[in-house]
UniProtKB/TrEMBL annotation:
Protein name in UniProt: Glycoside hydrolase family 19 protein
Species of provenance: Thauera phenolivorans
InterPro entries (UniProt xref): Cell_Wall_Dynamics_Protein, Glyco_hydro_19_cat, Lysozyme-like_dom_sf
UniProt record, GO biological process: cell wall macromolecule catabolic process; chitin catabolic process
Domain of life: Bacteria
SUPFAM superfamilies: Lysozyme-like
GO molecular function terms listed in the Swiss-Prot or TrEMBL record: chitinase activity
C-alpha cells in the first residue's frame, strides 16, 4: 500500500521533503510489513513528529546553557546545598538554572555530544569522539555505537565506518529498523498510540502533537488511498469465553487499575502465546470494533474447534436492517431552559445556546469551553442541574453538553418494542413512556457500549489519549455503571485544558486523572477529581469515549 507525496503534505511536510523521502519510505515500509492503514498511519505520525516534518535527519546539539540544564538536569542543573534544583524565570516560565558545566559547554555541539554520550550505548570515553561520531541520525534517530553496529548488521553495511549514511541513504530504513526492533507493528494493530509513544520517546513528550498527526494520517489515507473494507490485520480466534463475563486486563493481576473491558460469554479471542505460571495468558480481542490486547485467566477459555478457526468462503451479505434513528423529545422548546426545575427529558431550547461549529482543533476546543461556560453547571440559578432531594443530574448535564457540541448522546431512547417495530421497517412516532424512555447514567453506559459506534463514538482505553482528544476539540466522556443498578451510576465530560486548568499527570506526562466537568452531588465546571472515582468498588464497569 504505497503512499503518495500528498499523504505526507497533508501531515504538514513540505513538498520538497515529501518528494525527497517518499521512495525510500515506501520501499522500507513495504519490505518490513508496515503495510496496513493502521500501521502506516501510526508509523508516519511518529516519523513526521520525530523528524520535525521530515526536515531533521541529524541531531541538533547546539544547546544554550538553559537548554542543557532543562534537557539533562542531572548533569547540567544547578543545585542548592540540599540537592534541590535552583530555578530562574526565563520568558515567563520557571526553568532549572544552568550550572558551571552548562555555561562552559553551551553552543559547542561536538563537546556536548562527547560529554553527554561518552561511556554509554557502547561509546568509548570522551576523548574517543564516539559521542559526536555516533550522535542521533535518521528519521527516527539512532544514537550510540551499539545501535549503529546493530543497524549495520541489519542493513548489511558497516555504518560504524560511515555513520553519515544513517542520515543519508539509510535515513528511512533507520526509522523502520527502530520500529521493527521495538515490535511496534503489534501496537499499531491495536491502535495503541500511548504504547508506541512511550516505546519511541521513553515518556509522553509531544503526545498531543503525535495524536494530531495520527488523525491527519488516518484521514489522508482514507481519502487518498481507499482500501477494501476490513483491510488490515485480522483476528484469528482460537478460544471463546466460557463464563457469563470475563475481565480483560492490561497486566496479569486483578486490580481496578488493570481493567480494560468486560468480555461477554461466547466472545472469541486469539491467544498470543503460552500462559504464565499463574495461569494468565495474553489475548487479542475486538472490543467496540477496536482490536485490543490484554490478559485473561486461561482457565476461563475454551478452545474453538479446528474447523471454526479455518477460513471459510465469504457468505453473501445479510440483508441490511433499517438504521436506528436518533431520537429526541420535542426540540427548540423555549420553555426548556437551564433555570427551570423540570422538562429534563427535553433538549435545551434556549435560542442563544452555543454550538461547536469551528473547523480547526483549536477552534473546536474553544467552542467546547464556551459551551461549558454557557451551561455553567454550578450556578445556583441553573435548577436543571442542581441536586435536589437525593436526586442528581449527571446524565442531564452530559446530554446537554453533547447536544450543544453536536455529538448524539440520548436523553431518551427507543423502548424495546419500538426497536422491534423499527427493525421491521415501521415508522415509529415519539411518545414518552410508550415508544421512548429516559436513560440514566447506568443506561448510558450500556447504550454507548451497544450503539455508540453507530452514532460516531469511539472507545478510548487510556486517559492520556482521552484528554488529548478533548484538547483537540473532541467531545469526551467517562461513564461508569453501578453494581447495584438501583443506585445511580455516573457520567462526566472530560473537557479541554488551558493554561490555568490542567489534568493531573505523573512525572513522565501520563494523565492519571483528566480535567472533568460534571453535575452530581457536587456540580463543577472544571476540576480534577481527588481520586479515580470510576475505579471505585461500587462500579461494575467503566469506559472512556470520544466523539470527533
Amino acid at each position: 500500500m504505497p503512499i503518495t507525496s500528498e499523504v505526507l503534505t497533508r501531515l504538514g511536510v513540505s513538498r520538497a521533503n515529501a518528494d525527497r523521502h517518499l521512495e525510500a519510505l515506501n520501499a522500507a515500509m513495504a519490505q518490513h510489513g508496515i503495510d496496513t492503514p493502521l500501521r502506516i498511519a501510526h508509523f508516519l505520525a511518529q516519523v513526521v513528529h520525530e523528524s520535525g516534518h521530515l526536515k531533521h535527519v541529524e541531531e541538533n546539539l547546539n544547546y544554550s546553557a538553559d537548554g542543557l540544564a532543562n534537557t539533562w538536569p542531572a548533569r547540567f542543573g544547578a543545585r542548592d546545598a540540599s540537592g534541590a534544583y535552583l530555578r530562574v524565570m526565563v520568558g515567563g516560565r520557571s526553568r532549572i538554572k544552568p550550572n558551571a558545566a552548562a555555561l562552559q559547554l553551551q553552543r559547542k555541539p561536538e563537546a556536548i555530544a562527547n560529554a553527554c554520550y561518552a561511556s554509554r550505548m557502547g561509546n568509548r570515553d570522551p576523548a574517543s569522539g564516539d559521542g559526536w561520531r555516533y550522535r542521533g541520525r535518521g528519521l527516527i534517530q539512532l544514537t550510540g555505537r551499539d545501535n549503529y553496529r546493530e543497524f549495520g548488521r541489519w542493513v548489511g553495511e558497516d555504518v560504524l565506518a560511515d555513520p553519515d549514511a544513517v542520515a543519508g541513504r539509510h535515513c528511512a530504513r533507520s526509522a523502520v529498523f527502530f520500529w521493527n526492533r521495538r515490535g511496534l507493528n503489534a501496537l499499531a494493530d491495536i491502535d495503541d498510540l500511548h504504547g508506541i509513544t512511550r516505546a519511541i520517546n521513553g515518556g509522553l513528550n509531544g503526545f498531543a502533537a503525535r495524536r494530531e498527526l495520527l488523525e491527519k494520517a488516518r484521514r489522508a489515507l482514507r481519502e487518498l488511498l481507499p482500501v477494501a473494507p476490513g483491510a488490515g490485520p485480522a483476528l484469528t480466534p482460537t478460544h471463546r469465553v466460557v463464563p457469563a463475563q470475563l475481565n480483560l486486563r492490561s497486566a496479569p493481576q486483578v486490580s481496578p487499575a488493570t481493567w480494560i473491558a468486560t468480555l461477554n460469554q461466547g466472545s472469541e479471542v486469539e491467544l498470543c502465546g503460552e500462559a504464565d505460571s499463574a495461569g494468565w495468558v495474553k489475548v487479542r480481542v475486538v472490543v467496540n470494533r477496536v482490536l485490543r490486547e490484554g490478559h485473561v485467566a486461561q482457565r476461563y477459555l475454551a478452545a474453538l474447534p479446528a474447523r471454526a478457526r479455518a477460513a471459510t468462503p465469504e457468505a453473501a451479505p445479510a440483508p441490511a436492517l433499517p438504521a436506528i434513528p436518533a431520537v429526541h423529545m420535542e426540540e427548540n422548546r423555549a420553555d426548556v431552559i437551564r433555570a427551570r426545575d423540570g422538562g429534563r427529558a427535553y433538549p435545551l431550547g434556549e435560542p442563544d445556546r452555543p454550538r461547536r461549529r469551528a473547523a480547526s482543533a483549536a477552534g473546536r476546543a474553544a467552542m467546547l469551553r464556551e459551551i461549558v461556560d454557557y451551561l455553567d453547571v454550578a450556578a445556583p440559578a441553573h435548577l436543571r442541574y442542581r441536586p435536589k432531594g437525593g436526586s442528581t443530574y449527571c446524565n442531564i448535564y452530559a446530554c446537554d453538553y453533547c447536544y450543544l457540541a453536536g455529538a448524539y448522546l440520548p436523553r431518551v431512547w427507543w423502548t424495546d418494542r419500538a426497536l422491534q417495530r423499527i427493525a421491521l421497517g415501521e415508522s415509529v412516532a415519539v411518545a414518552y413512556g410508550d415508544t421512548v424512555r429516559e436513560l440514566n447514567a447506568n443506561a448510558l453506559h450500556d447504550w454507548l457500549e451497544e450503539h455508540g459506534t453507530r452514532f460516531g463514538w469511539h472507545r478510548e482505553f487510556d486517559l492520556s489519549s482521552l484528554q488529548a482528544a478533548a484538547n483537540a476539540g473532541e467531545v469526551c466522556l467517562v461513564v461508569a455503571r453501578r453494581k447495584d443498578l438501583n443506585r445511580s451510576g455516573h457520567i462526566v465530560a472530560v473537557v479541554p485544558e488551558d493554561e490555568d486548568r490542567l489534568a493531573h499527570r505523573d512525572a513522565v506526562g501520563e494523565v492519571l486523572r483528566p480535567l472533568e466537568s460534571q453535575a452530581g452531588t457536587r456540580n463543577f465546571r472544571h476540576e480534577v477529581s481527588r481520586s479515580a472515582w470510576w475505579r471505585d468498588a461500587r462500579f461494575q464497569s467503566h469506559a472512556y469515549w470520544r466523539h470527533p
